[in-house]
Write a structure and sequence with these properties.
Strand order of the largest sheet: 1-3-5-8-9
Helix content: under 10%
Distance between the termini: 34 Å
Number of helices: 0
Radius of gyration: 14 Å
Number of strands: 9
Oligomer: single chain
Largest sheet: 5 strands, mixed
């Protein structure tokens, strides 16, 4: 196929895998780079803060809790309220509209 931007094929959006196991602010990867993040919450849980949605319109972030421990993944920042992932393999997809993050899918 034709080559798009560096690291992509045919103009497709690149995905980057960024695992989380400690509380922190997620670093924005920039326009055109989506993020898939397996999260390990452990017994005590972790808190993740989404980066600013401004300047990264169209970027998507998927967070999925991969461990079976009792702790939850609590997600805040640029969204209304808090999203909690409490069960193993529970996920949420966010997309930036260049102003705020929208929940685009979850289970």
């Amino acid at each position: 196929g034709r080559r798009g931007r560096a690291g992509t094929i045919g103009g497709a959006v690149a995905d980057t895998v960024v695992p989380y196991s400690t509380s922190q602010t997620i670093t924005a990867l920039g326009v055109g780079i989506n993020q898939f993040s397996p999260c390990t919450a452990g017994a005590g849980g972790i808190a993740l803060v989404l980066p600013t949605a401004v300047g990264v319109g169209g970027q998507r972030i998927r967070l999925i809790k991969i461990d079976s421990a009792a702790g939850a993944v609590a997600i805040t920042g640029g969204i209304e309220g808090e999203v909690d992932l409490g069960n193993q393999y529970q996920y949420v997809d966010f997309e930036s509209d260049n102003a705020v993050w929208w929940v685009m899918g979850n289970n």
